[in-house]
Amino acid sequence: MAERKISGGRFRNPHHLPVKVCLVCQRPFTWRKKWAATWEQVQYCSNACRKAGGKTPGRSSP
Hints:
This protein is mostly beta strands and 62 residues long. Helix content is 10%, strand content 16%. It is built from 1 helix and 4 strands.
């Protein structure tokens, strides 16, 4: 179940994809095809974390 079938009858193993840690929630997230051109600039795992920006939970802004 860890492998997904792609065209051509070959399998792609998602365990060998690059991983980063989200700056907001500190959770790991893996490379996605839509980020192929901008992977170096990707910092957040989701739009919710991107909107939160540098804010950390439980910390109020001055």
